[in-house]
Predict the 3D structure of the following.
Amino acid sequence: MIRSIGFILLAFLWQNTTIQAQGIEFFHGSWEEALAEAKAQDKPIFIDTYTTWCGPCKRMAKMVFTQQAVGDYYNENFVNVKIDMEKTEGLKFGKKYPVSAFPTLYFIDNNGKVLHKVKGAQPADKFVALGKFVASKIDKSKDFEKDYADGKRDPAFVLAYVKALNKSGKSSLKVANDYLKEQKDLTTPENLNFILAATTEADSRIFKLLIEHRDGITALNDAASVEKVIESACQKTAAKAIEFKSEDLHKEAKTKMKKNLPAKAANFAMHADLKFYQATENAKAYLKASNLFAKKEVKNNAAKLNTLATDLLTTFTENKKALKKAEQYAKKATENGGLFQYYQTYASILFLNGKNDKALAAAKKAFELTGKDRNAKDHIMQLIKKIEQKQKA
């Protein structure tokens, strides 16, 4: 019974909950400047074309663009741009790239050619899948495959191949390892730079080579560039740990961050624990991680408290300790923020916890705070009716 009620409440929360803002970083500048930035970074461009009155645009901006998983993918693979289509920049953009519905999500290469476009808001998982689909359309690694199969192995070619594989999201480990095994001297500038470019995962031999030759690689580049690669590799291994539900890989990612980037290790471990234990549905470990996160980073931030509460609710719907902690976070969110979403989350959790009178009061408060948002009013009214039906039962 609890699970069925939980699923109903999750539908309400998906529509209106404010998610912690750690998502897409949007470029600030003109369209011409965005193109120049994309060329400099050798990335395609994602464009969110919107209007201020568009409800689905607002929900996607609030519910999808702010999610960390979305930000992690789009920030790494695209230059991201938002364009208000009713302002000067938008009117100019629309002459070349027509928009007939909002939002329209454009994907354009750094020469201005349209790669793909989609009309309408997308949920987070489909939005990330959409980005990966676009990336597959500009997979330049295919240009190298035949020559590589035919035996071409000069260093510049193999380096370009490895970079193309990495950019397309494909594994470059075999190509990179095969090349490095043939090198008698890994300390040449050419090979040191190759190691830096080929390092993608912390659980790899190439990562070990990066650490062994860190001083030499740093001397050719700079400390910040090397640190960025180390952190990215640890993040990839942490993501792999989630994919394969591997505690060993999770620990390895944290251990290598602690050893090689100690200043960032604690924060890395805290966020990695939250993601891993939520993905593996380990309630005890997640509660411990969330307590640390709440103490160190969330504090009295209402949006982050609301996100913690929602994550506990969506992942551990039948765990009494998790729901009790979710209630605490949700209540604190309402005390530190005045948005209807916080009261809606609080009401939903109170309802699951059997506190129907308090749930009804919180839901009615949420309804009062919705203003002119008809969609939100409709969803919260459904919640109110559910609570009232439960009271009469």
